[in-house]
Amino acid sequence: MRKLFIVCIFVVFLFNGCKENYENELLSDDTVVLRYAETEKKGTYLSNISDYFAQLVQQESDGKIIIKVYYEGELGSEEEVLTQLQFGGIALGRVNVLAVSEQVPSFITSFSKLIGNSFDSFLDYIENNDNYNFAFQNEKLCPLTILPPSKRCIYSDENIDFNNYSQIRVGIDNSQMYQNFLQRWDINPIFIGNIATFPSLRNGFIDAKESTLSSFVNCDEYPYIQEVAILDHVTLPSIILFSNEVLNQLSRDEVKILEECAIKTLEYSKNYIAREEYLAIEQVARDKNMRRF
């Protein structure tokens, strides 16, 4: 009897440990928890948008849908998040259009034409492109909404000549589309993926790093950076994506709540991100040698 009791305790412990691996964690008969991947640190203004969406969903569903946000790539890189979304390992994620273009090949040409245009151009393209949702459906993805971008910037820990782009090796994420775009400016982009930025700058592997302004002002190397170039004419929004595998497990009412909250999040984010961008640029202008291009 004592052995049987020990075995039962072990089985209960094992079940509780494995339960964390499920996408939808049952809290009560009609409550689910959905995992949401956020690539930036908690507290950046882009990750705050993800928090806003999660809180809004919980509020509008009367606590029946709880979104648990995982920050700073805890659930993987954007490419890994997209793969997990396709197979239902993650329910939701905020993913930059660069990573999306790699995963949804039919959009590489379309998105590359829009990088230098306004955010409104992106919205107009999506709203008037009948193939937009269809292309994502083919990849088992459901785009809930597209969000305003954070400005992009290039930064370095040394004084460098930003007027001579061709001599600067700029570390970027693995995006062929963005590499081609930067090369049109005679910038020399270097794929660094998840390689640590500061050691790469220190050992001369790269001369500068490209990132969102939101991520830069909150990065660990910010105190050591001297030169910053704000890329005013680069527009790279992000998209809140839903896994079709998980979506099919939800009721129509639950899906409707998620869709309505995504629309409200877009409207909220327009003013919120614009305000935070203004404050971030003021901060960088005070702290660093900043230029705008």
Structure characterization notes:
Strand 6 (169-172), helix 8 and strand 7 form a beta-alpha-beta unit. The protein has helices spanning 2-18, 45-60, 78-86, 97-103, 108-114, 119-127, 131-138, 176-183, 197-202, 213-216, 244-247, 252-287, and strands at residues 32-38, 65-70, 92-96, 141-147, 152-156, 169-172, 188-191, 208-212, 227-231, 238-243, 289-292. It is built from twelve helices and eleven strands. It is an alpha/beta fold and 293 residues long. A six-stranded mixed beta sheet has the order 7-6-8-5-9-11, sandwiched between helices.
Topology (elements, then pairings):
Blueprint: H1 2-18, E1 32-38, H2 45-60, E2 65-70, H3 78-86, E3 92-96, H4 97-103, H5 108-114, H6 119-127, H7 131-138, E4 141-147, E5 152-156, E6 169-172, H8 176-183, E7 188-191, H9 197-202, E8 208-212, H10 213-216, E9 227-231, E10 238-243, H11 244-247, H12 252-287, E11 289-292
Parallel strand pairs: 1-2, 1-3, 6-7, 6-8, 9-11
Antiparallel strand pairs: 3-10, 4-10, 5-8, 5-9
Q: What's the story with the biggest beta sheet? A: 6 strands, mixed
Count of alpha/pi helices: 12
Number of strands: 11
**C-alpha termini separation:** 76 Å
State the main characteristics.
disordered N terminus, alpha/beta, 5-stranded mixed beta sheet, 6-stranded mixed beta sheet, 293 residues, 12 helices
In short:
The protein is an alpha/beta fold and 293 residues long.
